[in-house]
Amino acid sequence: MDEFEIIRRFFSRADRGDGIVVGIGDDGAVLEPSPGRQQVTVVDTLVAGVHFPADLAPSDIGYRAVAVNLSDIAAMAATPRWMTLALALPDASEEWLSAFAEGLYAAMAEFGVALVGGDTTSAPVVMTTVQITGEVEPGRALLRKGARPGDGVWVTGTLGDAAAGLAGLEGGPMHRELVARFTRPSARVAYGQKLAAAASAAIDVSDGLVDDLGKLCAASGVGAEIDAGLVPLSAGLREQVDTETARRYALTGGDDYELVFTSSGAPPDGGIMPVTRIGSVVEGDGVVVLADGERLAVDAGGYRHFA
Ligand code: ADP
Ligand code: MG
Question: Which of 62, 237, 81 is nearest to 157 (CA)?
Answer without folding.
Answer: 237
